[in-house]
């Protein structure tokens, strides 16, 4: 994948990301970048392309920024993802309903309080 030639790491209409191998120094000259970071948040997914870092001295001498060079948003949520939208959120909601049913059964007398020892 040659980012320096304008090739995008996002393939197949966003269903495939080609981001492997960029952190390896041997590929920096070939790809033009030092790799990607995939960032997933409640607002969507982003890819950040990193510039190769030659060291502190080179960054100071050439006045180069050591932060990510390119930030590409390729999937934005229509609304922010909440905990209840996740698998863990569904499990927590189900557990909450189970506890509510247990409390209702206790209040109705179906479940008796255990005797003290």
Describe this structure in words.
It contains three helices and five strands. β3 (36-41) and β4 (44-49) form a beta hairpin. It has a three-stranded antiparallel sheet, with no helix packed on it. A two-stranded antiparallel sheet has the order 1-2. Helices cover 26% and strands 20% of the residues. It has helices spanning 28-31, 56-61, 87-107; strands at 10-11, 16-17, 36-41, 44-49, 70-76. The chain has 117 residues and is of the alpha+beta class. The chain has two domains: 3-78, no CATH class; 82-117.
Strands across the major sheet, in which order? Answer: 3-4-5
Number of contiguous helices: 3
Tell me the total number of β-strands: 5
Helix amount: 25-40%
Please tell me how large the radius of gyration is: 25 Å
Distance between the termini: 71 Å
**What amount of the residues lies in strands?**
15-25%
Tally of structural domains? 2
Report low-confidence residues grouped into runs of 5 or more: none
Order of helices and strands: EEHEEHEH
Average pLDDT value? 78
The assembly state of the depicted protein chains is: single chain
Shape: elongated
Structural class: alpha+beta
Largest sheet properties: 3 strands, antiparallel
């Amino acid at each position: 994948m040659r980012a320096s030639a304008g090739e995008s790491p996002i393939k197949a209409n966003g269903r495939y990301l080609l981001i492997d191998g960029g952190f390896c120094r041997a590929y920096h000259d070939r790809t033009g970048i030092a790799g990607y970071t995939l960032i997933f948040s409640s607002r969507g997914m982003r890819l950040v392309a990193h510039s190769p870092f030659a060291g502190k001295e080179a960054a100071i001498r050439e006045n180069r920024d050591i932060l990510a060079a390119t930030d590409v948003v390729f999937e934005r949520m229509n609304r922010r993802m909440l905990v209840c939208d996740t698998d863990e959120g569904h499990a927590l909601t189900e557990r909450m309903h189970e506890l509510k049913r247990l409390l209702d059964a206790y209040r109705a007398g179906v479940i008796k309080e255990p005797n003290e020892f």
